[in-house]
Amino acid sequence: MLPVNSSRTVYLSRALLRSFTVNLTCSARCISSSLFKKETWHSNTNLKQPGREKYLVYSVNKVNHPRHYSTTQVKLGCWNCKKPLVKTPAFFCKSCNVIQPPEEGTSLFEIMDCERTFTLDTQKLQTRFVQLQRFLHPDKFSQKSVKEQEYSEIQSALVNKAYKTLLKPLSRGLYMLELKGMSIEEGTDSGADSEFLMELMAINEVLDDAKTPEEADKIGRDTKRKLADLTKEIDTALLRDLQAAKALLAQMKYYANIEEKVKEKVSQFM
Q1: Distance CA 248, CA 194 (A)
Q2: Closest by CA position to 118, among listed 191, 180, 185, 161
C-alpha cells in the first residue's frame, strides 16, 4: 500500500494529464475550425467587377497537416455563362463564344499580342489589327443583345487606339514612357539645348522658303534619316536610361512635326 503523500502525487499527476489532453484536443479543434472558416470567408468574398466575375480557384496539397494548402491566381469569369476565362486578354468566352468587356490594366502591347519593345514587328501588328477587327467590329453585332453591342464598340475602339499608338515609333515610345510613369509635357522644350532649337529653326526657315517640291522633298529625306537614327538610339535608351530616352523622344517629336510640314509643303505644289 502506498503512503498518503504518494497517493496524492499519483492522483494529481493523473488530473494534470487529463487536463493537458483536453486542452490539446480543444486547441486542435479550434485551429481546424479557424482554418476552414478562413477558407470559406475567402471563397465567399465578393470579387465582381462590371461585366466580369472573379473566381478563387483552390489547389489543396495532399499532405498530413491541415495548414498545408495554397490558392492559385484569381481568374476572370464570363459575364454570360460564369465559367472561367482561359486566356488573357479574352475577347470571347471559349465556353459560350460571347464577346467580353475589356480587362482592366491590360496594356496595348498585350491587346495586340506584341512584345513590349520599341522595335516591334509592325507587319505582325497590322495582321493582328485586321484579324481582331474582323471579329470585333460593331457591324458584326447588330443583331446581338445591347450588352454585346456595347462591348463590341468598346473593344473595337480600344483595338483602334492600340494599333494607332503602337504603329508609329513616336507614339509607341511615348506610350512606353507612360507605362513607366513618365511623360513629355506639351508646350515645353523638355530640356532641349539652344543649339538643337537653333537647328530646328533653320530647317523650318528653309522649308518655308522652298520654291519647288524637290527642295521640300530633300528636307523630307534628311528628316527621315534623322528619325531612323533617333529610333535606334531610343531603342537602346529605353532599356538603359529612361531620362535619355525621354530627351530623345522629345527630339523625335520636333522632327516628326517637320516631317508633317514637308508633306503639307509638297502637297501645295501638286
Answers
A1: 15
A2: 180
Band of residue 75 on the pLDDT scale cut at 50, 70, 90: low
Are residues 128 and 114 in contact, defined by beta-carbon separation less than 8 angstroms?
yes
What pLDDT, on the 0 to 100 scale, is given for residue 87?
84
- Please answer whether residues 175 and 162 qualify as being in contact, where contact means their C-beta atoms are separated by less than 8 angstroms: no
Is 125 within 8 Å of 167 (Cβ atoms)? yes
Cβ-Cβ contacts under 8 Å for 93 (sequence gap 6 or more):
78, 80, 81, 83, 85, 100
- Given this model, what pLDDT does residue 256 score? 95
What is the rounded CA–CA span in Å between residue 41 and residue 47?
12
Angle between helix axes 146-167 and 122-136 (nearest 10 degrees) is 170
Residue 164: which of 125, 124, 120 has the closest Cα?
125
User: Hey, which residues does 164 pair with through a beta bridge?
Assistant: none
State the distance between the two ends of the chain, measured CA to CA, in whole angstroms.
Answer: 127
Judge whether 245 and 177 are in contact, CB under 8 Å. yes
Which H or E run includes 59? strand 58-59
pLDDT tens track for 116-161: 999 999 999 999 999 999 999 999 999 999 999 999 999 999 999 9
Question: Which cell is 181 given?
Answer: 510613369
Cell, residue 21: 489532453
Q: Is 186 left (phi over 0), alpha (psi -120 to 50) or beta?
A: beta
Give 243's contacts (C-beta < 8 A, 6+ positions apart). Answer: none
Least confident of 49-53, 208-212, 244-248: 49-53
Is the confidence at residue 6, as pLDDT, over 80? no
